Amino acid sequence: MIEPAASRSTGRPAYSQTLPREPRSAVVARRLVRAGLTLWGLESLIDDATLIITELIGHAIDHGRLVSIRVVVCRPSEKVVRVGVVDRSKAVPKLKADPDGDHPRGLGLLLVDALADRWGTEPYRWGKQVWAELREGETP
Fold first, then answer.
1. SS3 13
2. Is 43 a domain residue?
3. What tens digit of pLDDT does each residue of 63-83 get?
4. Is residue 64 included in any domain, yes or no?
5. Is 32 helix (H, G, I), strand (E, B) or coil?
6. Cα–Cα dist 67/38, whole Å
7. How far apart are CA 42 and CA 38, in angstroms?
8. What is the rounded distance in angstroms from the CA atom of residue 118 to the CA atom of residue 101?
9. What's the CATH number where 121 sits?
10. Environment class of residue 84 by beta-carbon count within 10 Å: exposed (0-12), middle (13-18) or buried (19+)?
């Protein structure tokens, strides 16, 4: 069983949590996303945001280097939420425009691209954050 560290607010309303770099961490990440969006009154974004965070976790599991990742959920403005996953790999994710049918993995960023208003990578000296933003009342 995963024993997650306590979630904490990280400013301009935000929450983050460090989790093991393993598939079952997606369950905890989805709970964190749901809780933040519910507290902020952005319930209409929950389905897409939880699907996006699941895909971002999967990407970090496949490409991260250390045993942990960090999930971040923030609200840059009243109607915008940003979900992201921080890992210790500097490899920038690439959107596969023509996925190879022999490899069922690698379609996650296509889904993120379809659901998010915008998404990207924020590089750090030691790794990166892959993030996606959703805006209440708009569709991508």
1. coil
2. yes
3. 888 999 999 999 999 899 999
4. yes
5. helix
6. 29
7. 6
8. 26
9. 3.30.565.10
10. buried
Alpha helices in 40-96 (DSSP H): 46-63
40 lies in a domain? yes
How does pLDDT run across 19-59, given as a tens digit for each residue? 999 999 999 999 999 999 999 999 999 999 999 999 999 99
Bridge-based pairing of strands 68-77 and 14-20 is antiparallel
Share of the chain above pLDDT 90, in %: 68
> Who's near 80: CB < 8 A, 6+ residues apart?
117, 133, 134, 135, 136
Helix, strand or coil for residue 27?
A: helix
Give the Cα separation of 17 and 15 in Å (integer).
Answer: 7
Locate tokens 């069922």: which residue? 104
